[in-house]
Design brief:
The chain is mostly beta strands and 312 residues long. It has a single domain, classed as monomeric porin ompg (Porin). It has helices at 63-67, 194-197, 303-306; strands spanning 22-33, 36-50, 55-60, 77-78, 93-102, 106-118, 123-136, 139-143, 146-150, 164-174, 179-190, 199-210, 213-226, 244-254. A hairpin with a 2-residue loop joins strand 12 (199-210) and strand 13 (213-226). The longest helix has 5 residues, at 63-67.
């Protein structure tokens, strides 16, 4: 008797896709800070492909995919021009690779990539990081830290390209087979002078998964607490409850697995909408992101945040 081939390793949704899966994410990013509603507005696409059971590659634009945070807007196609909070129409892109290290209730992936964080100013960084999640029933605890190492323009006189640390953390709860909510926070800031430039966000997100589709939305206070004080009025606040961002997104998977970890839709086998989601898969909302790199809506933020901001 010929033994059946071994089963393919389970994906680590949403970070490691099943081999042959293609996933497209589209995110609407809206700045909603006090006095700057809908400034900026951006549409940020991300594309991911599972090239092997252990390796997933991505082409990224969204703030979430780039840094793990959802706390500001302006990635991808920023459509409100410089008067509406955009530095440029198109000013960032990243190429990333992530590999599975550990699967199961405790999951761990490692990777990084090359990030063009400001195409106009020729700011290019190398990203190195990991993503870890612990699952206990319907509850997950997640962290996705990364460091961006500036490879160009480190010696600019005004706003140099600097190394930046991002440490998002989140607590997700799967309320039903298709619905997940998450709370989160984290910390970010330039590595040099971190004690004087850190920011801590807070926010909430929710997702709904059905078949190969996941939709979600988040409300985030992008820098609820920060080491630096706000500038005096009438300058815009750079921290506190007045710094807000709303995001909405949709993910669609084609091929090996859906965003929630199941077999994705294909011409030969569309997944029935009634098929329940895996009880331990907590896509997207399980890795909430609450602040964001280089927010155009925060012109007085520390150097790393200012460098994408439109000049006032």
């Amino acid at each position: 008797m010929i033994a059946p081939p071994p089963a393919a390793p389970a994906p680590i949704a949403p970070w490691i896709l099943r081999e042959g899966t293609l996933r497209f994410d589209a995110t609407l990013e809206l700045g909603m800070s006090s006095g700057r509603a809908a400034k900026p507005i951006a549409i940020a696409p991300d594309l991911w492909v599972g090239v092997s059971p252990r390796l997933t590659l991505g082409l990224v634009h969204s703030r979430y995919a780039t840094t793990g945070f959802r706390g500001s807007a302006g990635g991808g196609l920023c459509v409100t021009a410089t008067t509406g909070g955009c530095a440029k129409l198109y000013n960032n892109i990243g190429w990333e690779a992530w590999g599975a290290v550990l699967r199961g209730p405790l999951a761990f992936v490692a990777g990084g990539g090359l990030e063009a964080v400001n195409i106009d100013r020729r700011f290019y960084d190398v990203k190195i990081g990991f993503k870890a999640r612990y699952l206990a029933g319907r509850v997950s605890v997640t962290t996705t830290p990364s460091v961006f190492i500036a490879m160009t323009k480190r010696n600019e006189a005004m706003t140099p390209n600097t190394d930046v640390l991002y440490v998002p953390v989140g607590l997700g709860v799967k309320l039903a087979d298709h619905v997940t909510v998450a709370l989160g926070s984290g910390i970010k800031g330039p590595v040099s002078g971190f004690a004087k430039t850190w920011q801590i966000p807070a926010g909430i997100s929710a997702t709904y998964a059905t078949g190969p589709v996941v939709v979600g939305a988040s409300w985030v206070f992008g820098a609820l607490v920060a080491s630096a004080a706000n500038p005096p009025a009438p300058a815009a606040a750079t921290s506190g409850p007045d710094v807000r961002v709303v995001q909405a997104w949709i993910s669609y998977a084609l091929g090996g697995a859906s965003p929630s970890g199941h077999a994705a839709a294909s011409p030969s086998r569309p997944r029935p909408a009634s098929e329940p989601a895996a009880p331990l898969d907590l896509p997207h909302a399980a890795t909430p992101s609450w602040i964001e790199r280089d927010a155009p809506a925060e012109p007085s933020a520390p150097a790393r945040s200012r460098r994408h901001a439109p000049r006032k």
